[in-house]
Amino acid sequence: MTRDGETALSFVVFLVKEALDGRPEDAPHIHYFCQEVAQLLLTYGADPSRCREDESSLMETCLEHFDLHFSLALQLLQGGASFFCTMHSPPCWSGFVLIFQRLCSAVQELKDNTVAAGEVILKAESILDFVIATSLDVRIPKDFVISVENCGIHAQKILSIYARLKDLEHTPAPLKHLCRLHIRQQLQLLNLKQKVERLPLPDRLKEYLLPTLQFSEAAGTCNGCHRVHPNDTA
């Protein structure tokens, strides 16, 4: 930490925002650097979901524009980052709220580009599916009201995603899902796949321990899996 209270995470937050406001040709290089630094910080126990009084957290900053920072946001979640503020709890910020706010605004901006809008929706679903697969429960702030005005043909799809989450919010997780979560927590999410592969277990049990969705480096794509409810799979 510097004398001004700046930390390594503070500088990454600055760079992530700079990628939005800077030159488009610089964005890929900034994203690559931020991902490399974030991975190192996660390895040494940094908390990217902890904000300060005068600064957003790295996780919050990424989720505010998850469609543009998809790879970094997913990397943080796979590294064990919380989906809400770990300092002030969800009333400060909630990943569910940020995802839907950005999803609606991005779709409105892309209302004349159906393909691009569909890609944003897929990215939102990918992040939400991963959070569901690795979380004990779903907690959406009670005062949050989703607005799909001007979302055009995508409005119903967004509402269906939201309705599914609301259903999960009031549905107790099956025992097998709770057991899987407990084992994952003991292993910790960072580099979870590599840790599970080293366990002296049959392949079927290793598949059971891993999150339902395994993401490739290509944003929004899944390797060898079906988009199903995480709690419904063994």
Automatic annotation (TrEMBL):
Gene3D superfamilies: SOCS box
Domain SOCS box intervals: 172-209
GO annotation, biological process: intracellular signal transduction
InterPro entries per UniProt: SOCS_box, SOCS_box-like_dom_sf
Domain of life: Eukaryota
UniProt name for this protein: ASB6 protein
Encoding gene, per UniProt annotation: Asb6
Pathway: Protein modification; protein ubiquitination
